[in-house]
Predict the structure.
Amino acid sequence: MALLAPAAVLGASAAEERLAALDLAAAQGDTVALTQLAIKYENAEGVPKNLQMAHQLYCRAARQGHAEAQFRLAWIYANGRGVSRDDGIAAAMFSLAADQGHEYAARLLRYVRPAPDTQLPSCLMPDPPVEVEIAPINSEDPTVAETGSSPSTGRRGEIEALVHRLAPQYAIDPQLALAVILVESAFNPAAISPKNAQGLMQLIPETARRFGVNQIFNPAENVKGGLAYLRWLMAFFQGDVPLVIAAYNAGERAVEKYRGIPPYAETRKYVSKITAIYKKIRHPYESQIVEPSPVVRNKQRSRD
């Protein structure tokens, strides 16, 4: 029997120790370790090649917002490595990584085509809560009128309970927030628009960063970001609901530019949908958050 030289034995032992340490860190949720371990399984580096395991590990890290994992998951879908090729998912994941400054992801975005209504892999969705106490849904509540492509009643109930819990913390009427979620995403936490608006309240990455959202597809973080933006807009437009809704869709600068609801067909339709559900045209606001827009000051002068 041939015997390994002591140096070779030591080298193998050291490699095993490094792999064991990587396994332990990954098990504890370390995103760098998860990604490095996934690379090993993807490329058979010291472990048997296992593309399914690589996909699972990349997903866990990507779900926590790790840019390199998002990039590598995009690469897997762009090339159909162990999964069905899907340019829509690849584009969404490249975009997420690029938004965090991943240069290679930004370059590769030009080679994949975004697809409307892309559904992200289920592994990227946050784990469901073990127990959620859901308040009874009021059948007369207009926000429950349309289901469209919304998720199951149970998941919608969890989202409604989440909104009712969080909205008062941001001084926003829960019914307004629910109307926005219904029109924006139909209660789909994984929704992505052709313009890369993401999640329940369809935050674009710039708005998500502006309001401190790190995991944009996490329902609680997404809702918090959307509520924070609505609170800011309420202060900026002094509780004028149609202006706030128009700004949520088109941006506050567009509302200022046109001194009212912009003449965009999409925005006008959006405002009509929200105000058909949420009937109030005035909403309380926190004046200390931001100086009011000149648009509302001009409105007040014209009324005076």
The first helix runs from residue 6 to 27. Residues 1-5, 127-152 have pLDDT under 50 and may be disordered. The chain has two domains: 19-115, 142-303. The CA atoms of residues 98 and 106 lie 5 Å apart.
